[in-house]
Specification:
Length: 284
């Protein structure tokens, strides 16, 4: 849309996609090199005297065949030495692989999403959790076995804080509708939940997709007030949760615990976790 409006643009360099994109629109080269530093896009431009532009493009994988830059490696080694021992402390273990594949996480319930949502709800004593899938990272299945702090930080790398809101059932329903509004596309707003179950119809109009919402096993009461655990990112409207910006805060970002610490506390208290998908979110 941008280059159709401004066809004189020679090059667009973007990001935040979860896969590499290279395309030509008119005269414009559009490049997005994917996510998590897996690739580096090198683009050489040469403007000729006749004002035409030559473009040479190469997508280079970033892997262990590329030697470390010595000065950067020394800085990294210093941090690793100081932080490594604490990050390598094992706080518990999982008997099952924990699913964090982005395409799955951002379109459906996952066992890791359930684990994180349960930890958030327990930490602030909320009725339910609505957590954006985009805050849970790794884009892989974490294998069963020991869970070190380093792994938990990889799962929740953003330093998000758990907040607690007071919301009516009507506003909760609006939040859930927003969370599933981009289906069938994978999107960071898709909710991972705790304390509630719901059915989602992907073919229904946006805003009318959520039904059969149960909280604590009882039907959602639109007029009743509930407490909701979520992240400070969502409280500020992140990932489309504008409805959260107007709610009463029972636990704010200034007083709430870090999300990753809530997860560590939850895992440590149990020692061993075995989260499953439980049809909390049934997508049809």
């Amino acid at each position: 849309a941008l280059v159709r409006r401004f066809p004189e643009i020679d090059l667009v360099v973007g990001g935040h996609e979860h896969y590499p994109i290279t395309s030509i629109q008119g005269r414009t080269l559009i490049s997005k090199a994917g996510s998590d530093a897996r690739f580096l896009a090198r683009i050489d431009l040469n403007r000729r005297r006749d004002t035409t532009v030559e473009r040479f493009y190469e997508l280079m994988p970033v892997n262990n065949t590329i030697p470390d830059e010595p000065k950067a490696a020394a800085v990294i080694a210093g941090y690793e030495e100081r932080l490594g021992r604490e990050l390598d402390v094992v706080v518990g273990r999982s008997t099952v692989a924990l699913e964090a594949n982005s395409a799955i996480m951002r379109a459906s319930e996952t066992n890791l999403g359930n684990l994180v949502a349960d930890a958030m709800r327990a930490e602030v004593g909320a009725d339910i959790t609505i957590a954006n899938s985009g805050g849970i990272r790794g884009d892989r299945a974490y294998p069963a076995g020991p869970l070190a702090r380093r792994t938990l930080v990889a799962m929740l790398p953003f330093g998000s804080v758990v907040c607690k809101l007071e919301m009516t059932g009507r506003d909760i329903l609006a939040a859930l509708e927003s969370g599933v509004g981009r289906l069938p596309a994978s999107d960071g707003r898709f909710p991972q939940v705790s304390g509630l179950t719901m059915t989602v119809s992907r073919s229904a109009p946006v805003g009318q997709r959520v039904s059969n919402v149960l909280i604590g096993g009882a039907p959602l009461d639109l007029a009743k007030t509930y407490s909701v655990a979520t992240t400070d990112y969502q409280v500020t409207g992140g990932d489309g949760y504008a409805i959260f910006t107007t709610q009463k805060q029972l636990v704010s970002h200034e007083t709430g615990p870090m999300q990753v610490l809530a997860l560590e506390k939850y895992v440590t208290a149990r020692g061993t976790v075995s989260p499953q998908t439980e049809s909390r979110i049934v997508v049809r």
